[in-house]
Amino acid sequence: MKRELLNILVCPMCKSSPLELHVFKEFEEVEEGIMTCKCDRWYPIIDTIPHMLPDDLRKEKEDITFLEKWKEKIPKKVLEGGKPLNLSTQKTKT
């Protein structure tokens, strides 16, 4: 994802902007990272593509795998209370 996109992206749920960007891997553009919104939602950037789907269209397995992979770099508030999924909700399911 090109950093300039952050200026035009809005949260698909609450329509807030700007989103906060956390970069995990970057070369010419953001390859892996996460965008967070003030409504506590988070959106992964995977292989340079921002995954900005509404809650009901998100893939649980993909989101949890992403959180587990990058948990050392993801803000604690996302890991523990991010919407629609977080690692705390997964622990209560098992």
What does this protein structure show overall?
By secondary structure, the chain is α+β, with helices and mostly antiparallel strands. The protein has one domain (3-93). Helices cover 24% and strands 22% of the residues. It is built from 3 helices and 4 strands, in the order ββββααα. Strands 1-2-3-4 form a 4-stranded antiparallel beta sheet, with no helix packed on it. β3 (42-46) and β4 form a beta hairpin. The longest helix has 10 residues, at 60-69. The protein is globular. The N and C termini lie far apart (34 Å). The mean pLDDT is 94.
Oligomer description: single chain
Shape: globular
- Class computed from helices, strands and strand pairing: alpha+beta
Give the biggest sheet.
4 strands, antiparallel
In total, the number of domains comes to: 1
Q: What is the radius of gyration?
A: 12 Å
